[in-house]
Amino acid sequence: MKVRRRQGRTLNLGIPGGGVSAREGLGRVSASEMKVDGHAGDEADTTFRKTLKAVSVLVGRNQETCESLVSDFSSLAPRSGLGVAQVKEMDSAVDSLSTEMPTLIITPPYEGRPTDNAKKFVAWVEGMAAQGKKLPEGVEFAVFGAVNSDWAHTFHRIPKLSQSLCVTISGESSAIGKIGREERAGVDVVIENANSVKVTSQQGPGGEPILLATVVAHRELAAASSFGASKRHIDLRLPLGTTYRSGGCVVVRGENSAAIVSHVMKRFNLGPEDVMKVPSSTKTFLPSQPMAITEFLKRNVELATPITKKQLSILASWADRDRKESYRLGLMQEDYIYQQLLDRRYSLLDVLEDVPRLKVPFGVYINLLVPLAPRTYSISSSPMDPHSLEGSGVVGPAVSLTFDLLESPAMSGHGTFQGVASSYLASRSTGDRVFCQVCRANRASAKTTGNVELGPALLFFGCRNPADDYLYREEFEAWEKDGIVEVIACFSRPADGRKGEYVQSRLWEARDRVWSSLQEGARVYICGSAARLGMSSTETFRKICREKTGKTEVETLEWLEKIKDIQYISDVY
């Protein structure tokens, strides 16, 4: 490891292998004066990599949800004798699964459906299996499923389907290798004073083009209260030539708050003028060129994700066995205590604040972090709205986002939790710029062009009470007056003493009308929490189907799966 530090700064904090205390007149340590725990050189590293067994990685993802998994695998694979030769989207492997190297398939389900870039692949293997066709001899694969249990009925479907179908068509399921997270040594970090180096900025990976949008309106829809967080509305003017569709989304690249960045800097005894670089790492979010540490912490890595047991184990390896830090970190790995940490959303930094005497190098800390993931927001405007249209060929269309401002006392008890993207958006004023990506609609039902004549529309809108969080009430009432939509407001905590109502109960009351509309081709759109509104609405529609048709539990589930993305479209989170 090569280390360079500012004058007078102790070496035992922030750098793996440091152990010399600061003393009067200590000069900067040069690259030639210290090498700890590194490879012998570039030539040795090249020779080492030539001995690795090549692996191909196929990724199915929506808005980079599996980005950190790919990064982790690429980083850890060499320790098991593997080297990632290529990373491709799943659809690119149709008719071309490698016979020269094993293939790792990393895929999540998207509400039980293939992700945007895996639809062709899943259809291909389904077709091969149905026709009794076989894959070429020599195809080896393993499937890693990244799932969301909020989609209770479907969260394992696509990973399991990919695995079983590939086995059916005679690909050989391969134990590619046990990949561990033994990261005690950390990464080689060079820290210098900003005045002595040229600082460069970095741009993260992306799928859709990164756009620079302009804030044209920003207002609070509902203030924070005992009922929930502050609700905000923001309009972003996109560049000329950009298009979007209803049902699409905007991916926002947020920032960690100044407060949490300051906590990290203080914990590792770093100054605001310090810059860093990681000369050799397979992790793309670690800067290979000098970058201000504050900027790295703000833009490149997640600082508040829940702690993992492996991270706790690595922290414990830095504690002296006869010290109380070792005992405390050992307790935290016990199932009961660890579950309490998860319930309180303890992060790596929270744990470090609970064991302030633990001397963990900065290089170890950043090597345990994952890249900052972009946050996805459903578009809450229509490109057909006159306010969204391009302005006389001079400016692009405007897109609206509606979001909660996540800002509250941290459940861990350490400071204030601030949402990465929501706090970033809430801090933007008219005229400010926002880096974002516009993703196309994921559903055929969202493809509308030109003026269309709409049929009867029925909106079930759930909130607490009219005074606190009846969002867009004026717009809804105006549309209802014009005969555009009928609104059924469901107040769970009305202030006038009435019994609370929920969307699912009002939906059940209107089941005759709802079922009749479905038979006439009506489309259902669900937007809200997957664990609450999404799940309760799904169960209510299945209940309606059972009553109207006499179908069994299994048959109603099959019915719902059949009409998904055609008549039943959900956008849940």
TrEMBL record:
Molecular function per GO:
flavin adenine dinucleotide binding; FMN binding; NADPH-hemoprotein reductase activity
Domain (FAD-binding FR-type): give its ranges.
208-463
Among Pfam families, the record links this protein to:
FAD_binding_1 (PF00667), Flavodoxin_1 (PF00258), NAD_binding_1 (PF00175)
Q: Which PANTHER family match?
A: NADPH--CYTOCHROME P450 REDUCTASE, NITRIC OXIDE SYNTHASE-RELATED
Source lineage: Eukaryota, Fungi, Dikarya, Ascomycota, Pezizomycotina
Stored InterPro entries: CysJ-like_FAD-binding, FAD-bd_FR_type, Flavodoxin/NO_synth, Flavoprot_Pyr_Nucl_cyt_Rdtase, Flavoprotein-like_sf, FNR_nucleotide-bd, NADPH_Cyt_P450_Rdtase_alpha, OxRdtase_FAD/NAD-bd
What's in the GO CC field? cytosol
Q: Does the keyword NADP apply?
A: yes
Q: What is its EC number?
A: 1.6.2.4
Name of protein = NADPH--hemoprotein reductase
Species name: Geosmithia morbida
Cofactor(s) the protein needs: FAD; FMN
Q: Which UniProt keywords apply?
A: FAD, Flavoprotein, NADP, Oxidoreductase
